[in-house]
Amino acid sequence: MFVQVFSSVAIIALVLIQRGKGSDAGAGFGAGASGTVFGARGARTGLSRATAVFAAVFMVNSLALAYLGTRGQEAPRTILDEIETREAAPAVPTPEAAPVPQAPAPEPQ
User: Fold this and answer.
1) CA-CA distance, 10 to 15, in Å (whole number)?
2) Rounded Cα distance, 9 and 90, in Å
3) 38 falls in which pLDDT band (50, 70, 90)?
4) Residue 80 phi, psi (nearest 5)
5) pLDDT at residue 72 in the model
6) Residue partners of 3: CB distance under 8 A and separation at least 6
7) In CA terms, which of 2, 17, 77, 99 is 20 to 30 Å from 92?
8) Distance between CA atoms of 55 and 10, rounded to whole angstroms?
9) pLDDT tens column, 46-77
10) Is the separation of the CB atoms in 33 and 27 below 8 Å?
């Protein structure tokens, strides 16, 4: 679970750090040149690769957690399974359905 939370937070942070594709239009007029830390192309490729790595870790970890969470459990039952079970079970008479023996009536004297 720790790996899942860490990778999701890392993906969110890396996506927020990256600049959008619309920022390239402003770079031609000198607006984007002062905001580069890693150089002209270094930040884009480095952050993109890091995002891709964390996304892959997130996906593999999600599949592993789903597998481990369902391992050892029986398949979920549906309403149709319940109906089949009731129809297959033999009918057991209930006490209300069984005839009640009555005592013989006293003979008149």
Assistant:
1) 8
2) 56
3) low
4) -65, -35
5) 78
6) 57, 61
7) 77
8) 9
9) 888 999 999 999 999 999 999 998 887 777 77
10) yes
Q: Which two tokens stand for residue 55?
A: 């996304």
The amino acid sitting at 106 is: P
Sketch the domain layout of the chain as residue ranges: 1-18+41-74
HSE-up of residue 24 (Cα within 13 Å, Cβ side): 5
Q: Which of 5, 12, 2 is nearest to 47 (CA)?
A: 12
Decide: residue 7, CB within 10 A, 0-12 exposed, 13-18 middle, 19+ buried. buried
Contact of 54 with 14, CB cutoff 8 Å? yes
Instruction: Please enumerate in sequence order all residues whose Cβ is within 8 A of that of 50, keeping only pairs 6 or more positions apart, or say none.
Output: 10, 14
Q: CA nearest 58: which of 105, 3, 103, 18?
A: 3
Look at the block and give the residue holding tokens 């006490």.
95
Rounded CA gap, 51 and 107, in Å?
99
